[in-house]
Amino acid sequence: MKTKKLALFVLGFITALVLAACSDTGNEKGKENTSYENNEGDHAGMNHSGSGEVPEGLKEAENPAFEVGREIVVNSDHMQGMNGAAGTIVGAYDTTVYAVSYTPTTGGEKISNHKWVIHEELENAADQPYKPGDEVVLMADHMKGMNGATATIDTAEQTTVYMIDFTPTSGGAVVKNHKWVTEEELTSAN
User: Fold this and answer.
1) Total domain count for the chain?
2) What confidence tier does 32 reach under pLDDT thresholds 50, 70, 90?
3) Cβ-contact 45, 103 below 8 angstroms
4) Which of 7, 21, 48, 97 has its CA at 20 to 30 Å from residue 57's CA atom?
5) DSSP E strand stretches across the chain
6) CATH code of the domain covering residue 130
């Protein structure tokens, strides 16, 4: 009797593990739609916290609207819990920021209008900013399958971008060194 119960328990446990694994793979778009913005940037595989390292050649902003250390409120929904979140500026940089569309190198559906990739995160970036419609290769690793992907520039804007730490409104740990948000996506917390 004990052997039967143990066998049923083990079988149930293995079944639960298999079902959990199946629900996590091959369905990033479905997961994205419940957790992040709807295919306008498709942030399902977003690396929430980063190292804080910045690409070579990226220049600190001389007169950012939000200086390093300033407390801010995020007015963007790049990922779940971001819109309305309280945060702090970690870095401010002057560059060209792009929204891009690409198919992940890991497979899956095309990601449309991903915000944001900066000029210094493009492979062999030209001296001049790219224009909408230009094709580039991404060197950013904000999301799974992004690094090495061929992308099309959707929008391009010369501006200040910010790296931020913020506490998600949906709960959970503080997101550290999130790359990137623009001035238009922030307001002062004071």
Assistant:
1) 1
2) very low
3) no
4) 48
5) 59-60, 71-74, 86-102, 111-118, 135-137, 150-167, 175-182, 186-188
6) 2.30.30.1210
